[in-house]
Design brief:
Tetracycline Repressor, domain 2, mainly alpha
Length: 210
C-alpha cells in the first residue's frame, strides 16, 4: 500500500515536471500559472504546491531536471588525462546532441534572458568550472596558446554551440541547405573544432610568429 502511494506520488511529480517544462518553454515563467500546469499534467494546484512549494520552486526544479539529464547524457566528465583535442570533441558533440534531444532547452534559455534572469541553472556552474579546469590544464601542458583566457574560450565554445542550436534552422532555410540526417550538424562540429584547434594549438602559434 505504502509503495503504491510512493509510486503514484513519483508519477504525479514527473507528470507535473513534464507539463511545467513544456509550458515554461512555450510561455516563459511569467506567462504560466499553477492552474495551467495542473490542467496539462492532470494534477491539481494543491498537489503541485505540496511537491514544489511555489511556482518559482517548480521552475527551479524544471531547470534542475534538465541539468540532471545533461549529466546523464554526457555519462563521463572530461578526464584530466584526456588530450585537449579529445576534450573539445567530447563537449562539442555532447552539447549539440543534447540540444537536439532537448529542444525545450533553447526556448527556456530564451525566456530566461527575456525575463532578465542571469543566475546559473542548478549544477551549471559545476560544469563551467570543470571546463575551465580542463582548458587551464591544457594551457599549462602547452597544448594551447598561453595567452588564451580559459574563461573567454569556454564562453566561445558554449556560445558557438548554443548559437548554432538556436539559429541553425533559420540559416539552413535561408541559404538553401538541407540538414538531412543531421549532416550539417556534423559538419558544423568538425569545422568549429578545426577552426578552434588551428587557431589555438601551440605549434600553430610558433609557425605564425616565424
Amino acid at each position: 500500500m505504502g509503495k503504491g502511494r510512493v509510486r503514484n506520488s513519483e508519477t504525479a511529480k514527473a507528470a507535473i515536471l513534464r507539463a511545467a517544462e513544456e509550458l515554461f518553454a512555450e510561455r516563459g515563467f511569467s506567462g504560466v500559472s499553477i492552474s495551467s500546469i495542473a490542467e496539462r499534467s492532470g494534477s491539481s494546484g494543491p498537489l503541485i504546491m505540496f511537491h514544489f512549494r511555489s511556482k518559482k520552486g517548480l521552475y527551479s526544479a524544471v531547470k534542475k531536471s534538465i541539468m540532471d539529464r545533461y549529466c546523464r547524457h554526457l555519462v563521463q566528465k572530461p578526464s584530466e588525462a584526456s588530450s585537449f583535442r579529445s576534450f573539445l570533441q567530447d563537449i562539442l558533440e555532447g552539447m549539440i546532441s543534447f540540444y537536439k534531444l532537448n529542444p525545450s532547452l533553447v526556448k527556456l534559455s530564451k525566456w530566461s534572458m527575456l525575463e532578465g534572469e542571469c543566475e546559473p541553472w542548478p549544477g551549471e556552474a559545476d560544469w563551467h568550472h570543470l571546463y575551465l579546469e580542463r582548458i587551464e590544464q591544457a594551457r599549462q601542458r602547452g597544448e594551447i596558446r598561453g595567452d588564451i583566457s580559459p574563461f573567454r574560450f569556454m564562453v566561445i565554445i558554449t556560445g558557438a554551440v548554443h548559437f548554432w542550436c538556436e539559429y541553425h534552422d533559420h540559416f539552413l532555410h535561408d541559404l538553401g541547405y538541407d540538414n538531412k540526417n543531421g549532416e550539417e550538424d556534423e559538419k558544423y562540429i568538425a569545422e568549429l573544432e578545426s577552426l578552434l584547434l588551428n587557431g589555438l594549438l601551440a605549434d600553430t602559434q610558433a609557425k605564425q610568429s616565424q
